[in-house]
Amino acid sequence: MSSPFAVTTCRLWFCVLCAVCAVRAAADPPETRVELEPYVTAVLQGGVKLYVECALPSGDGREILGRLMANSGDWRFFLDRSMVRIPYSRLNPATQRRALQALFSQDSVDVRGWRHVVTVDGPDGAESPFALAEWLTGRGTHASQFRLENGSGLPEGPLRKGMVLIMPYAFLLPHMRPVAGSGDSPQVSAPVPQASHDVASVPLNDVKQNESESEGSPPATADKPNSSAEPPPPPVEEAVSTEPDTTAPQSAGGESSGLSSSSGNLLTYGQDKKGRYAEYRLQSGESLYTAVVIRFTDIREHKEILKACDEIMRRSGIRDINRMPAGQRVRIPLDMLSAEYLPEDAPQRQEFEEVRQKARALRGKTPRTRNLKGVVVVIDPGHGGVDPGTKWGDLYEDEVVYDMACRLKEILETRSAAKTYMTMLDESQQYVPVSSRKFSHDSDEYVLVTPKYHNTDKDKSVQLRSARANYIYRQELKAGTPAEKMVFVSIHVDSIQNPQVRGTTVYVPAARLLGAVRTPSGSFKELKDVPAAHFSRDQAQTHEAMSRNLAEQIVLALRKSAPPIATLSHGDPVRNTIRNEKGNFVPWVLKHNLIPNRVLVETANIQNAVDRSLLSDPVWRQRYAEALYTALCRYFE
Ligand SMILES: [Zn+2]
C-alpha cells in the first residue's frame, strides 16, 4: 500500500517483447462459422482465433459440454450461461480435429502430413502459420516446419488465400494424423475416434502429497509431438498461444459448491516442505506468464510477474522453461493466488464467497428505473494533465480514455434520463470526441474541482478526482438520490507487458481492503467540511458486491457486443485487487470513494497489437461506450 495513489497498471512500458507470432491488427475480424451438430458451431475469427460456440438448450448443457471439452468436468463452469464459447485449447482432441476439418474443408491429411489450403486473408485478418502450427502440432513455433506444396519455405509476409501449406507428418499431434485403417486416403473427413491419448482429460485431482522436491520428470504424454523430430526449443518462453482464452472459466470456484478438489477444477491443492501450494497442469501451448500468473494471481507488473514465474519454476522443479511438455505440473505458492483461486478453507476465499453470495442476493434488488431515470453516473477519464498514463508511439492513454468518457457522456445525455458528471475537462477539446485514428496529445486537462486543478501532480489529481466523486455523492444524497442509484466509472488503458494478453479487466474494490475514506488536504471547495467516513465490514462487502454485479453486466455487454469486445484473455476479467511487491492494493479512486457502484475499467492492453489498433479506432471506441451504456441499462433494469 506504499504507493496507493497510483494506478500502477498504467505505467509506461516501452519494451516490446519479441513475439513469436505476428498478430495482425484487426478492427472487425471476419468470421467463418460452421455448424458441427445441433447447438454446436465451430468459429474461426480473423483467421487466427478458433473456438466452438454452444447455444445450450436448457438442461442438456452438461452432456453436450462434457462431450466437447478436454476436461469433461469443465461443463460446471458454464452451467449458468445460455451461450458458451470453448477456446480451441480446451476442446478434446476429437473435437479439435472436427472443428479444423469443418472450418478448413479443403484440408486433407496423409502419411506425408497435413495439407492446408489458406482460406482467410484480407486487411482485417489473415491466417497465421503460428496459429496453424499450434492447432496441428501443439506448438506455434513449429510454424517453421511448414513448407509450400512445391517444397519451398513460406514466403515472407502474410499468408494469401489459396496458398497450400504442408505440415510434415512427424510434427502432427497424434489426433491430427491420418486415421488408422483409412490407408492413404487423403480426406480428413474419415470419422475420428475418441482419442485415447487425451492427455488433457487426465483428472487434475491426483495431487502428489509427497515431500519430494525432485525434478519429478513430467508425465509422458502422447500429446507431445514426435520427439525424434524435435526442432530446437522456441526462442521465448514456451509456445505462447495465439488464441486468447476469452472464455476461461470465471474462477476456480466456478460455483461455490465444493469444486475445490473435484476434477472439474483447474487447480488442486497440496503440501510440500515449503508449505501449501496449488497445482495446475499446463496445457499444450500454455506459458507460465499468461496461463498461470496472469490467470491465477493479481500480479500485473512485468518485473513482478517474471519473479513469480521464477518462484513457480523453482517450486515445481522446472529447469528449462522452454521445455515444458503439456501436462507439466506447476506448483503455485498459495500466498500468490487471487482470493477466488484459494482453497475453500482459506479465509480470503471464504470472504470472496461471502461477497459473491451477497452479490447474488442483491441481484434484482437494484432499484429499477426506466431509461436510467434518477441514476447519477460519475465518469472518470483515468489520466490527464502532466500524467499521460501509459503510451505506445503516439497513442496516449489519457487521450484515448478522455475520448471514451466523452462518448459515454454523450450517449447517456442524449439517449437516457441519467444525470452525468465528469471528473475532468480538457479545456481545448471540451466534451467533443475525436473522430479520427490520430490524437493530438495535449496536457490542458484539469480536475473539475473548485477552483479547477490543472494536473500538475498525478497523485493529487487522483485524490481530487475521488474527492469530487464524494462531493457529488453527498450533494446528490442531500437532493434525494438514493446511494444505490449512483455509479462511478473510471476508464483506463492497461499495460500488461506481454503481447499475448488482451482484453478488458474490470476492477472492483476488495471489501477486505476498504477502511477509512481519505480526503486530501487543500483549499478546494470539495474538501471543506468533509465528514469522516469509514467502511464497516458489512458496508465494504455490500459495496464490493454491488460493484461486482455492475462489473458482470459490463463483461456481459462487452461480450454480447457485435462483434464481441474482448475481455481479459487469461482468467477472470473481474478483479478486486492488484498485487505488487508490497502486497495487495485497491486503486485510490475505488478505495477512497463513497459511491457504492464503482468500477475501474481497463479497456484493453496497449502491449497487444490488436488491442492497440482497436484503441485508436473511433468506431471501436464508440462501440465500447455503447456497451458501457448497455451495461448500465441492464444493471438498473
Ligand atoms: Zn490508467
Describe the 3D structure.
- This protein has 3 domains: 31-197, no CATH class; 227-349, no CATH class; 371-635, 3-Layer(aba) Sandwich (Aminopeptidase).
- The protein is 25% helix and 18% strand.
- It has helices spanning 61-68, 93-103, 129-137, 288-296, 302-316, 347-362, 397-415, 458-478, 537-560, 588-591, 609-615, 618-635; strands spanning 31-37, 40-45, 49-55, 83-87, 108-110, 113-117, 147-148, 164-168, 268-272, 275-281, 329-333, 376-381, 391-392, 395-396, 419-422, 424-426, 445-447, 453-454, 486-494, 505-507, 516-517, 533-534, 574-575, 578-580, 583-585, 597-605.
- Strands 15-12-19-26-20-23 form a 6-stranded mixed sheet, sandwiched between helices. Strands 1-2-3-4 form a 4-stranded antiparallel sheet, covered by helices on one side.
- Strand 5 (108-110) and strand 6 (113-117) form a beta hairpin.
- Helix 6 packs across helix 9.
- It is globular.
- The two termini are 37 Å apart.
- Mean pLDDT is 81; it is low at 1-27 and 181-264.
- The structure holds zinc ion.
- Residues 7, 10, 382-383, 389, 397, 492 line the site of zinc ion.
Q: Which ligands does the model contain, each kind named once?
A: zinc ion
Radius of gyration from CA coordinates: 25 Å
| Shape call | globular
Mean pLDDT: 81
Q: Specify the CATH architecture of the largest domain.
A: 3-Layer(aba) Sandwich
Topology readout:
Blueprint: E1 31-37, E2 40-45, E3 49-55, H1 61-68, E4 83-87, H2 93-103, E5 108-110, E6 113-117, H3 129-137, E7 147-148, E8 164-168, E9 268-272, E10 275-281, H4 288-296, H5 302-316, E11 329-333, H6 347-362, E12 376-381, E13 391-392, E14 395-396, H7 397-415, E15 419-422, E16 424-426, E17 445-447, E18 453-454, H8 458-478, E19 486-494, E20 505-507, E21 516-517, E22 533-534, H9 537-560, E23 574-575, E24 578-580, E25 583-585, H10 588-591, E26 597-605, H11 609-615, H12 618-635
Parallel strand pairs: 12-15, 12-19, 19-26, 20-23
Antiparallel strand pairs: 1-2, 2-3, 3-4, 5-6, 6-8, 7-8, 9-10, 10-11, 13-14, 16-17, 17-18, 20-26, 21-22, 24-25
The structure holds zinc ion (ZN).
The site of zinc ion has 7 residues, from loops.
